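Forum: Protein Structure Q&A
Topic: Joint prediction for protein chains with partners

I've read a bunch of threads here and the consensus seems to be that you should model interacting components together rather than docking separate models afterwards. I'd like to see that in practice. Below is the full input, 559 residues plus whatever partners are listed. Could one of the regulars post the assembled result?
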Amino acid sequence: MKVLVPVKRVVDYNVKVRAKSDESGPDLSNAKMAINPFCEIAIEEAVRIKEAGNAEEVIAVSVGDASSQEQLRTCLALGADRAILVETDESVEPLGVAKALKEVVYKESPDLIILGKQAIDGDANQTGQMLAAMLDLPQGTFASEVEIQDGVVQVTREIDGGLQTLSLTMPAIITTDLRLNEPRYASLPNIMKAKKKPLETLSSSDLGLDLSPRQNTLKVSPPPERAAGIMVEDIEQLVDKLKNEAKVIT
Amino acid sequence: MSILVIAEHDNLELKGATLNTISAAKEIGGDIDILVAGMDCESVADTASQIPGIGNVLLANKETYKNSLAENIGNLIVELSDGYSHIMAPATTNGKNFMPRVAAKLDVSQISDISAVISDDTFERPIYAGNCIATVQSTDSVKAITVRTTGFDACESSGGSASVNSIENDTNAGVSSFVKEEIAESDRPELTAAEVVISGGRGMQNGDNFSLLNGIADKLGAAIGASRAAVDSGFVPNDMQVGQTGKIVAPDLYIAVGISGAIQHLAGMKDSKVIVAINKDEEAPIFSVADYGLVADLFEALPELEAKL
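Posted by a regular:
Agreed with the consensus. Here's the joint model:
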């Protein structure tokens, strides 16, 4: 069995991104970049499936500019066997990413595709579901548990009220939620080894894809600021303020 | 303009998130239909038909739609999409699950989690954990949209009399099946609909200590939430998570206890009307968004708060 794991290079989750003062976009100058945290969980899950003897190969794939090679090397250090970069200098919407991934799926015929449920930059939460629809495959989104049986995969999903378990035929698409696993750290020897693992680059034009955006970002502005609050001395004062000033309790 | 809103329900009740979504649809303007897809969900369709200003309620009442499997619901919406300029659903785990499938099948780029309507093709949506608000204009012929329910007030739910039309489409994709569901039983209000929310963070130290929030929640009629740190530490289940990748809440009163205020958490609660933060670290970033901050040991403050209410 082959597992394909699409990953995204994003701003590190500790960076507080601000809008540029001319509102032309987010200010990402010199921001630290990293693999999207949910994608890291996806890689970890795929590697665990391989380690449990349920898969022979884990392939990481990313759609982005040449710098995404850095995140693909991270995936290789975490246990992926090889990596593919679909290189494009454009900023690609989830619809376009799913189209590019679809071509990779045709090429590689994976049995399982595991993605992060959302990227923490655009917060769109679309790519996995879109890819599933384009391939007419079943999806188990927001997974907190994945169990592979003969030809089917059981996915426990984090839904609004609790948990839901689905059984999916394979090939299937899974998107990860945060409790699925705790990703490992790459060891130094594995980081060294990762440098020798194969990383193939395809260009989006070779794949004959039109990845042009369908949405124009007219502006990116800061969120409304909250008025400064006050510090209270004790619980008594807090309760008094909530009752008589904010009037939110009676 | 002609808008199809997908109802959020559990086959028994129409969920409030549907009403916020319809408010967003009304801001776009035009005819609004509601799709109720489920099994034995006639009462939901009936409730939906009483919402003022609705043209038709489409009722797809079939085993195929009972558990809202994304493959089946997605295909159904695609079959019904002809003639609609906008297809909208609340950005719940359910709406997030099927809507991108609809968008992909229609070859359109989805607009996720809109928090404001600027015009029929232009919307605001938070990005980067809500640290930026993007104004995006869609060039697609059909707009597939999920709605951040905290961005829109609920519309009126009674006084209307839309017709309920049964539809017979059966779009069983046959690739997924329902196994089981474990829904947390609680007498408390739903986290995303509660007027008061009290949340605990890593400062709670363990899951048992979350019971310190119970008495206060009882007195205030509050829902109980948690930060991602508390979920990550295994204190409480993920369905309690408030934040960028959990639930987005905007209650009248939000009380954050032992929560440092990571940007991912602030993204889920900073639109609350009044925010109270109780933390023993006076440098905690949560105080920067709090209307009322109290530097205190939560193990002393919580019992005192419960007693004073």
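The radius of gyration of chain B is 20 Å.
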